[in-house]
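User: Second chain of the day. Same drill as before.
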Amino acid sequence: MSSILILQLSDMHIKTQDDPIVDRWASLLRSIELEIMNLDKAIVITFCGDAAFSGQTDQFEVAGILLDDLFNYLKKVRSDLDVHLINVPGNHDCNLTSEDEEARLSLRHTFTNKKPPNSIIRILLRPQEEYFKFSKLISSNISNFTFDNPFYNSYDICVDEKYIRFHLINSSWTSVLKENDDLRFPLEEFKPSSNPEAFLSITLSHHPIHWFMMPDVRRELRDLIDQHSDLVLTGHEHENEASRRTIFAGGDINYIEGGVLQDDNDMANCTFNIIRINLSDKTQEKKTMTWNKDHFAASSDSSEPVKIYNPNRIDRRFQFKPKFERWLDEIEDPITHPRVSQLQLSHIFSYPDLRKILQSESNKDDEVVERVRSENVFNEMKDQNKAFIIGYDRSGKSSLCKRLMSDFRSIGNLPLLLDGERIPRKCDKQRLRNLLDKILKEEYQRLTYPEFEQLDKVNRILIIDNMHDGPSDSAERYNFLNIVPEIFEQVFLVAGDDFYFELINQQGNDVDLFFSYQRYEICDFGHQRLESLTSKWMTLGLKKPNPVAIREKAIEICQKVQSVLELAGLPHTPWLLIVVLSETEQTDTPFIAAQNGNYGHLYQAVITVALSQSKMKHFDLSGRFIYLGEFAHLLHKMNQSTISEFEAREFHKSHCDRYGLPFDYEKVRDDLLLTRMIRKDGDEIAFRSKWVYCFFVAWWLNRNLNIQEAKDAVESMTKHLYHETSANILVFLAHFSNDPIVINSMRETAASLYNSSPKAEMTNDISDINKLNKVSSLFRLPNTNPEINRKVIIDAKDDQMAKRTRRSYDGRNIETTPNNEASIKDNLMELRASLKTIRILGQVLRNGATSIEEKEKKAILMEILTLGRRILGNMYVSGDE
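Assistant: Same format as last time:
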């Protein structure tokens, strides 16, 4: 987790070296030390004004010694971290004791939000002369205010190539002894830089915005701050408060008012804030430290993590559209967490380990495999101009694409995300430009294609998800792959691993282009990632997590989850791990569905848990399953993935009339939105996830296998197993049903696939396999710390996992029914259909282990084995040729 710590100090009001805060300073240092032990990036000390009581030189000297002690103490305790100190002046930092109050007020009346003549500026700045010297002494950086630069300044820190910009405002340059809400500020002097682009922007001002003159200054300065800030830190009020404001254009800004380190009217009042910012998920967590007799302790108003991100900052060079940005952080599977109302991808995501395929120059078939660890994946991607990433079914390919989009954008690049099915089947430069114009309008604000086309190439990145859904014609893929590098400096192709199998079995012109990309394969969800995921899952929603207890419990749960999955022979897919994990955390009994190895029933459990969050208590669970099943069937029958709001109302009315239900459409729709079953985009209604859609189509088929329409649908799907949606529906149906209709249709399909190919004999034809080197099974436990030993062992297991060659799984496709032009033979889809057939018949055997007659089970098993031999025979023959 990438995080920084901000110490928000304010209103110290130093009079002499005998002040109470001087005696309390050592305790302040020790209280901060405890908070920075698990910090990994940087510490920023922000002093929000009023270091002195009346702007006197001797007061600043004492304040300077204290802040210098703090800075050096932090550097000593955490010498591995960068420590920064920035500050803004407060009204008490102005020496107004010798000023002519009436003359000062008269000069202020000559202007409001415009910069006055230099002669007036010099006079009004004179009380801050000692502050300017103090500021230069404690923080010798370019953020210091001076007579030449007195109004606005900025300070950047760089963390993991992300810039965090601090906007510093001198709010007190027109202060007087008895202040009212009429401060002035020259708005034209607020000149924030936009280069390099800031990942986060934080504004410091001693005075909150309501202390400025209304309306000329307050309203316009507030708009400027809103347009350039994610977080605003202030002082002056002596009240430690935090708030969140939604601005008109959309987006939230966090405001934190600092407390008071020394209150002349109440010496027991002594507080400061510790703000931890998680750069990975853009959240902030505030802890208020309060003096309690003889030490500082966290007060009860310390907050839980909240988002620190204003998507409508005007200084962002390229802004995602809010709707698209929300989608990037969505988890499309209906997964819930007991303590978090809206679970997001950033809560639980970690990059997968990747298997990097290194090819020798002399022989591209001579492959060397190198593991890219999860924590290094993004840096690896930054260094690649062209990458081809393949992954098995449900391995997290789309989540990987989403995260790459967010992370590339966060460091100032301009990524575009394209789904493979949208690639034009007849691709030329103009068609691609038209497509990119649409993508830009969907994903970015205020960015036109002409502007995009004229940008430096280095900023433009294309990420293609579901490349296997792109053009099936080799020549068209070749055209597309030739055009794309002319527009984008970096290109990332992400596809199902069955697409790779199809590539290596054909001789198209595009094959060499694909192999010119650096190839990666997504590894199984490893032991270290599972521990990390478990710890994140257990920590979510806890106000005061105990790291030691969580680690011990996480290890225990991980062992339990691994045992369940290995016993059942289930794949280590992210969503499945989360399902088993969520159940195992709450009970000592492993998930019963996982024990049975029923993949479909596990997904049914996910959906059941999500639907249990329904607010419509009179609409029971079985009724909602029927409703969603009928809705999925309607979409499938209409050959559409979405329907209009009008059509959805018509379906609802028809369904309620048929079943005698009294429910309003809006209530049912909103409830299904709440439970994450469906999504509503404008006038369109659709299932949130294609997997939920496939599940409910299969559920409807299982419930209606006694009618001809369902029988015909099953028969049609078994003939189009190269079509991924049809195949995925049948995978779910195989979990629900051992009906002869399903079994017989699948057996007929199995017999028809590769029916002209020879069966592998597994003798001379596997001689090359027998020549492979054997793997040593020797194991020695090093004489080191047990925890270190354990990490070394699981890392070695993950290394072995990265070296495994994955078998092919089906890819993802959102087409509801097959394309009539598609053909198994013509488009090399037969391998995909065969693997699906084996998987479905295997699930039939698993489900019917005790309910299908032995003779029938043997026949199914023989059909699977024979098809497998024909697949291998076909590959061996193709290889010989």
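Residues 44 and 565 are 45 Å apart (CA to CA).

User: Great, on to the next one.
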